[in-house]
Amino acid sequence: MIRKFVFGTPINTDATVLHIPAEDPQDIGEVILSGDGSELSCKLEEQDIVYGLGEQVRGINKRGWSYASNCADDPLHTEGKHSLYGAHNFLIIDGRRCFGLFIDAPGKVCFDIGYTEHEKMLITIPEPDYVLYYIAGASVTEIVREFRKLTGRSYIPPKWAFGFGQSRWSYMNEEEIRELVREYRDNGIPLDSIYLDIDYMDHYKDFTVNEEAFPDFPGFIKEMQNERIHLVPIIDAGVKQEAGYSVYEEGTAENCFCKDSDGKDFVAAVWPGKALFPDVLNPKVRVWFGNHYKELIDAGIEGFWNDMNEPAIFYSEKRLRKVFGQIEAYKGKNLDIKSFFEFKDLVGSLDNNPEDYASFYHDMDGKKVRHDRVHNLFGFNMTRAAGEAFDRLAPGKRILMFSRSSYIGMHRYGGIWTGDNRAWWSHLELSIKQMPSLNMCGFLFCGSDIGGFGDDTTPDLMMRWLEFGIFTPLMRSHSAQGTRLQELTRFGNFTQDYARIVSLRYMLMPYIYSEYMKAALKDAMYIRPLSFEYPRDERARTVEDQLLVGESIMIAPVYQQNALGRYVYLPEKMKLYRFRSECDYDIEVLQAGDHYVKADLCEVLLFVRPDKLVILSRGAKSVSQINTNQLYLMDYSENGAKYDWYDDDGVSKTYALPQNWHTVCLDEKGTVSIGNYEGMVNRI
Amino acid sequence: MIRKFVFGTPINTDATVLHIPAEDPQDIGEVILSGDGSELSCKLEEQDIVYGLGEQVRGINKRGWSYASNCADDPLHTEGKHSLYGAHNFLIIDGRRCFGLFIDAPGKVCFDIGYTEHEKMLITIPEPDYVLYYIAGASVTEIVREFRKLTGRSYIPPKWAFGFGQSRWSYMNEEEIRELVREYRDNGIPLDSIYLDIDYMDHYKDFTVNEEAFPDFPGFIKEMQNERIHLVPIIDAGVKQEAGYSVYEEGTAENCFCKDSDGKDFVAAVWPGKALFPDVLNPKVRVWFGNHYKELIDAGIEGFWNDMNEPAIFYSEKRLRKVFGQIEAYKGKNLDIKSFFEFKDLVGSLDNNPEDYASFYHDMDGKKVRHDRVHNLFGFNMTRAAGEAFDRLAPGKRILMFSRSSYIGMHRYGGIWTGDNRAWWSHLELSIKQMPSLNMCGFLFCGSDIGGFGDDTTPDLMMRWLEFGIFTPLMRSHSAQGTRLQELTRFGNFTQDYARIVSLRYMLMPYIYSEYMKAALKDAMYIRPLSFEYPRDERARTVEDQLLVGESIMIAPVYQQNALGRYVYLPEKMKLYRFRSECDYDIEVLQAGDHYVKADLCEVLLFVRPDKLVILSRGAKSVSQINTNQLYLMDYSENGAKYDWYDDDGVSKTYALPQNWHTVCLDEKGTVSIGNYEGMVNRI
Questions:
Q1: A333, pLDDT greater than 70
Q2: Structure confidence by residue, pLDDT tens digits, A375-391
Q3: Which of A51, A311, B222, B262 is 20 to 30 A from B617 via CA?
Q4: How far apart are CA A634 and CA A615, in angstroms?
Q5: pLDDT tens per residue across span A200-215
Q6: Which B residues, 72 through 91, put their C-beta within 8 Å of a C-beta on chain A?
Q7: How many CB atoms lie within 10 A of CB A43?
Q8: Closest residue by Cα to residue A121 from A56, A52, A63, A55
Q9: A229 neighbors A194 (Cβ within 8 angstroms)
Q10: A608 falls in which pLDDT band (50, 70, 90)?
Q11: Is A45 touching B (CB cutoff 8 A)?
Q12: Nearest Cβ partner for A562 among B59, B324, B569
């Protein structure tokens, strides 16, 4: 049951898709409103868990910290931070009572969840023009489903996008990429995509290609497709200011960019230097910007990632002038310690400065809206521009799309990756904890940069991260300029071990794809915390480092350096598969309760729930080569079990076809049958 | 057995105290030397654990990362860092063979421990003038003992320094401190010391006191002593350049400061603005600088902390001029993205710049030595200056001393705190893992800033950190300017819970002090990893989050947000005391093996080993009020047990007095007797 309350004069965010009549603002249950709606508060009882907030720091239970929805290009994701790249204002309070709140507000929102006072949650909306949704339900799962109906079906990528992707900032030219593909193929490492970071462009100009590096881009795309590799280029939010550059010229002529207070185009520096920001909050501009993806689609591209769309700003001319002016003053007066730190802070505050965000404007239905009031909608609408364009340009075809910045609603147009994490064990752990929170908010297609983007990775971290990454829908290794090279062939003896781990992903693909699609089509979650499935199990409620992947699998990733195993809590008896490769594994049945489970560096722990089935392929070196005419079954069933297996062509949008659904039956005698299926299937 | 090898022409670091004849450099066992000694390498086998390196990032087992001994004032202790404040070049490789290495080199040393190649350790000494010690032994414990004999007895603080200390950057004046003491006493929070951070000084001038804030400093010290509170002032490495300031004037006149390449005093900015660095590597200067502590000792001060002694440099005039010059150039040429990042990096690299460290000189035995070649000795020798002075100024009396920067050898003169950590759960975990590594290297008196120094703490983090902190010899809460106030009275309802936790420290004091003193007097470790005690237990070897505290106690701190318990591995059966307060606890006997143990937010888990005894007091509000005539015994013994209890006056250095030692006997019938003791003792 969803109740809707409107405060002030909200800007329509398009986060939701359901029409719900609004009620007069009032205290709801235990949620107490301040007069103008700028504060919502509620008492937290000892047993309450607070779930939600999507992409954020810290644990699955958000209690004990304060968060801010304020999309930020901040590459240092430490526990002390309050914002990352997304703004996902959905949370659930689960204790004696259970309810969800969605604060549909496009500006900054602050969540003090037992930070100032351990027993109190206080949500602050500094600009109280927003819509509040209160969602009641019998369980967390039910509330999530209601919320997802409210906000619309999650984005569905093409099937190949579930394959392993290799990225680097940046692969610089054709030859480098050819060599990479050769190395992966030679070493038997499955691979479906290679990501092109900013250097594939001509001087970081959106929708251009550096012709020196890629003299025949369509030809090269084709060549890679023949190798079953999809090239996935990055698109940045800022459009280079350069006379003669068509996107810039058109955008200026057609009034497509955000304006400064004088009504002139707002200019700020990002990768291409001085750049302008398409006013994607304006539908006309979305059409214009979106149409530009056509140039790359026509060349053969089938997927993109949208970056720098918080939007990130390195500096604005105005602030840079101001800073240089102040530096001049410091120079004269013989710096003392106070002025030295002021000087350092001044320089440090050039990028992503709130002053800049308050100095440009959008045109929303003819109304001038200052950016900071709708800041969190930018990334959403840049990705929406692409998504809407794909529907026009390639109707019926799925195009891969994921974004760095996001707001609830964007989950209908694309996935996300968790941005510029680091090669830290604690970031592997963080990424484990982020996945269910993102799923709750509708972002099903997500993943973190495997191995870590910033800082130098290590062979063992890479291994453990892959062992988790094989379960995330987006499975991509990515790393920053200047860090240790982290392709899977860069770590000597480990190449074959990595190849074996990645192969497990392809073995699991029928199950992963089926479970992803079921979550998307049924407004459910692909990855869940244990507590969502076992809500009355007090122990399960506190587990933050084990996850349910789909209906049949529980995972318990190892995320500690030099660990040779880990503790696992089983809410019910399960069958543990300890995989070293597709063909090399052992099986152990474990009773409900606590276990210390060994896991050597190259071993993946996979738990199958009782009376559940996992459908497998034999594996392959790319998604298109997976043979679904020869399937295998992993099961833990004594009395037979059933599984609804979803599969489709992986490209079109004909999700509703009845032939996409198959019922897998394992009877009491151990005989397997799959309805509506002509291939072979065997238990392993 | 210790073997010594000399490479090149080493500078004498005074790290060691034993005379050992040097052998000709050669490959030793599996350690392979490069020709000039600049590289030491050895193969790491699968089961090898590498212990050591003292104050460093990451785990107890140092495998899987690269480290550099290069004392650094870096307030962001993330996994990606290579250096913290100390340089502790001692490590032990423990596997099929077991040996220790101590690289006694005063400049930078790099340790690639399975980072580049998972199975290889490579130690690089860029300036190969050093002494290498190879220590063989039957066990890790034996190697540590040998190493500690080599490097001399660890520093012993006065007994009151084991009490709880409250710190903040900064308590600004007498009244603020009076109020603090009042609040602690009113709330029954035990307290023995209050730390004075940099603002107690007059314009950050060492050995001065801000007379406006402290109009009668000796009187105020006395007043606090009457309240059983010790004031502990900070001393910084840099001496303010200010005409008329006696320390500056004297130091200049007597040629006591480090020189630049022209032989003029080297000037760089730190807290007081332009400052000079006492050349503490010169014995004459140590006498001069050390004598200045007298002014504060005469005023009644009995303890100090030495800070900024890496030494930290905010900027040098020379580099600042250079940076401003370059900024000028940027201004002219209309910044592009490349020059923008150069500009930002330039400003970011002003502090602690290697160029500055390579631009000043020490006078060592009449020889001009460039600072960077002996960089890691600075903090050591600043603290040594104090320690040597205390022996002259207050012979026979213990003075509290701990330092931020350190080198092996400094452990004879003072303890350390782990510097500017943050209010992160992961830093509570880091501090747990740092303690045994520091103990190995001789730094027994150490602790981390409880609650975290930087960033904002939370009530629950504070609680869990205190629950660990009651076991560290230095137990101090400290936090930075601008962060949330974190005195124990600042968190509403939690004050009484905090008071109960801190009280446990005072209850445990007889044991903690006895175990500390035994470790110091016998070249042993106060805090050890499980693997040191149970070397043949494969599981114990991988445990990094449980520690042995002295001979009788094992601890398993909870360091995860919102956790209500944790897993514990017991290498042998133990008796678990779950303390809520001195009087409120429950007891459970747990068999060897794995356990999930509940621990509510206010509960401390303490495990007593079989046939071991823990001697307790009734607790008190300050160390001097602890009544050792009424003792209690915590034990887990079925057949009786013995314990060597050490106690002394806590002030003098008469450690060898026979009356300091008492044999506590628990016989088979449960009767307790303590030799050479007239008080009462009861089992609890």
A1: no
A2: 999 999 999 999 999 99
A3: B222
A4: 6
A5: 999 999 999 999 999 9
A6: 78-80
A7: 13
A8: A63
A9: yes
A10: very high
A11: no
A12: B59
Helix, strand, or coil (residue A391): helix
CB A517 within 8 A of CB A653: no
Determine contact: B339 vs chain A, CB below 8 A: no
Given an 8 Å threshold on Cβ–Cβ distance, is A455 in contact with B271?
no
**Are B61 and A460 within 8 A, CB to CB?**
no
Contact B340 A269 (CB under 8 A): yes
Domain limits, chain B: 2-151, 161-237+281-314+368-507
Q: What is the DSSP letter of B381?
A: H
- Please check whether the two domains, A2-151 and A161-237+281-314+368-507, share a CATH topology: no
DSSP-derived secondary structure for B423-449: S-HHHHHHHHHHHHHHHHTT--SEE-E
For residue B277 the two structure tokens come to 């660095």
Q: Nearest CA of chain B to the CA of A560: how many Å? A: 9
Q: Is residue A68 less than 8 Å (CB to CB) from chain B?
A: no
CA A411/CA B205 separation, integer angstroms = 58
Quote the minimal CA–CA distance from A684 to chain B in Å. Answer: 31
Give ipTM to 2 decimals: 0.97
> What integer pLDDT is reported at residue B332 of this predicted model?
63
Span A492-507, average pLDDT:
97
Instruction: Say which of A336, A350, A455 has its CB closest to residue B80.
Output: A455
C-alpha span between B235 and B392 (Å, rounded): 19
- Tens of pLDDT, residue by residue over A118-164, are 999 999 999 999 999 999 999 999 999 999 999 999 999 999 999 99
Q: Which residues of chain B have pLDDT under 70?
A: 332-334
- Residues in B touching A603 (Cβ below 8 Å): none
User: Which residue in A272, A340, A563 is closest to B542 by CB distance?
Assistant: A563
pLDDT computed for residue A35 by the predictor:
84
Set of chain A residues whose Cβ sits within 8 Å of the Cβ of B59: 560-562
> Which residues of B fall within a CB distance of 8 Å from A115?
456, 458
Give the pLDDT score at B205: 98
Q: Burial-class residue A390 by CB neighbours within 10 Å (0-12, 13-18, 19+).
A: buried
Amino acid at residue number B507: M
Interface touch A59/B337, C-beta < 8 Å: no
Residues of B in contact with A569 (CB under 8 A): 596
Quick one: pLDDT at residue B110? 98
Which class is domain B2-151? Answer: mainly beta
Q: Is B564 at the interface with chain A, CB within 8 A? A: yes
Q: Which element (helix H / strand E) includes A176?
A: helix A174-186
Per-residue pLDDT tens digits for B311-365 = 999 999 889 888 888 888 877 666 778 888 888 898 999 999 999 999 999 999 9
Q: Which two tokens stand for residue B135?
A: 């220590």
A656 touching B, CB under 8 A? no
| Cβ contacts of A49 on chain B, cutoff 8 Å | 562
Report the residue from B118, B562, B596 with minimal CB separation from A460: B118
CA distance B550 to B542: 20
Tokens standing for B574? 């133990």
A to B CB pairs, distance under 8 Å: 153
Q: What is the pLDDT of residues B254-267, one digit of tens each?
A: 999 999 999 999 99
Q: Which residues of A touch B543 (CB under 8 A)?
A: none
- For the entire predicted model, the pTM comes to 0.98
Q: How far is B37 from chain A (nearest CA, A)?
A: 27
CA distance A346 to A343: 5
Domain A161-237+281-314+368-507: assigned CATH number: 3.20.20.80
Averaged pLDDT for residues A494-514: 98
* pLDDT of B339: 84
Amino acid found at B177:
I
- In sign, the C-alpha dihedral spanning B457, B458, B462, B465 is negative
